Structure formats: structure tokens, C-alpha cells
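On to my pick:
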Amino acid sequence: MTDLIHTRKELASALAAVPGEVAVVMTMGALHEGHRTLMRAARERSAFVLVTIFVNPLQFGPNEDFDKYPRTLEADLEACAAEGVSVVFAPSRDEMYPGGAPSITMNAGPLGEILEGASRPGHFAGMLTVVEKLLVLTRADVAFFGEKDFQQLALIRRMVHDLELGVEIVGVPTVREPDGLALSSRNRYLSAEQRAAALALSRALREGATHTDPDAVLATATKILDDEPGVRVDYLALTGPDLGAAPGEGPARLLVAARVGATRLIDNVPLRLAKGR
């Protein structure tokens, strides 16, 4: 049975009874198969899995969808119970931020100013602030995050390393629909026509990743995106596995963000580059 708790006091009481490792999956709710995959990975690792559900206002910009972000707590609890989650911590805004929005937040640094950070100023400061608070409150030993939000994952790893938080961060590969579309809570905003157009993102990444020459990778992906009029590209970037400059050879990452209608989607894939091929 999965217990639902809402307060710090209840959380501390639940954690006091845990004899071993605490595995945490952080979410904003509206859970889908991608989240459930994270829960399964956590459950394979630890006997005690804690899922947090909190729509964090700090990481939404003034023109973003905080108010209309889906809240589906009852269905989310059913999903957590089905995956063997021990506890769901769903705090209120006041419980997470007593006294109002914090005056001191995390600085995401240079890595937080590129790609998503350039498009969504302040987003990563808000995200890192709530992640750090939740890592402390949940006393996490290990935390699981999806690779779909790859820049988020990279920043969390950097924060945990730099601040010596002593938490293991595990990245879990992106979960996709059978047609390749990366799972996202925002997919529900797409019409049938928009969803068909959105497939250009995963197709561009997949086809781009078949090449090992950086120019060919970008040219292939760019053409596919340009040929889809329903997609407005924000960025297409080829980087190193840590989001630094793309290497001449070895592991790399191809990332894309675009708007389909009013919905902003992101996706990425790993690939390997090789010289002279």
C-alpha cells in the first residue's frame, strides 16, 4: 500500500521507520509511463521508494503554463501504488516554501544559461532550488531522473557534485511512444495534427544520430525539421555528453527544442562521433 503524506512532519515520521536506503523519484505529477519507468528503476534498487509530487512555481516563467499544468493526484496515486511505491510526498506550496518564495535560490551557473536556460530565464534556478530542498527533506540516498530532460539531469549532477550532497544521481533513458514521440505531460495539449507534426523531432534526432560526422549529423536533423511546417525550432544542438563542446570523436548528445502549436517540446539522443567517417 502506498501512503500519501503532505507535511514535513509526516515525511520525517515516515523516513524514521526506514531501515535502509531511500530512493527518490521527483515529479510534478500528471504521471505517465516515463515516470513509471523511473519508479521501476528505483524499486529495483531499493526496498523503499519515495515519489514527490509538487508543481514547482519557481521554475515556471511569466508566460508559461503553471496554472494550467495538469493536476491528477488521484490517478497519480494509483500509478504509484501499481509500481510498489512506499510513500508519496505531495506538499502544498506553503509547505515547500514557508513564508513565501525563497529570497535565496540556486545559481545554475554557465551551464544553466545555454539551451533551455537561454529560452527560459530563471527556470533552472527554480528547478535546482526545489531539487536541493527535496533531496534534503527526503534524506535521499539515490535519486532517479529521466534523460529526456537532459540539461536538467546534467545540472542536478553538477549541483550534487559541487555542493557535496552525497546523493547518487541515476539517469534513466527516455521512454517513447511506439511511434517515437518522447513521453511528456505536455503531449496531452497536442491535437492529432500537431502530434503528427511533433514526430519530426524524434525523427530528426534518430536520423541525425545515424551519422558520425558532426556536420552530417546537424545537416540531416536540420533538413527534417525544416521540412515540417508545423514545427518551430527553438534550438538544435550537438554537444558533448556533459553539454560542453561536441568532441571530435566519442560520445555526444543531440538535443532539440521546438514549439508545435502552443506546446513546447524537448527531446535528445546519445550518439558517437568519429573522425574522418
